[in-house]
Amino acid sequence: MDIEAASGGRFDSAPERIFDRWAEFAAWAGGAELPAGAPLADPRILGAPSPSPRQVFAVGLNYSEHAAESGFARPAEHPPVFTKFSRVDHRPGVGGSVAARRTH
Question: Contacts by 96-99 with C-beta closer than 8 Å and gap 24+?
């Protein structure tokens, strides 16, 4: 949903600008009559959830397929948490496998 369009221009569509006015945004969103969502055919068109993140924290080996893809054993208790550079492309469906990225 385009928040800028849904709010009639009251709020910017850039998530980082909404966070600065969170209390006002939450009050508006709590009473807004918003259209029903629709299925998304291709999640790659979404873009990054926050286009200009200040910090990015990632969770690794958090499901069996991810651990198998990376060649590491799945942790018994807690998955590793680590930071990523903000210049990395974080969009859904972008990138390829961990093993493939290691070769570049």
Answer: 97/69, 98/66, 98/69, 98/70, 99/69, 99/70, 99/71
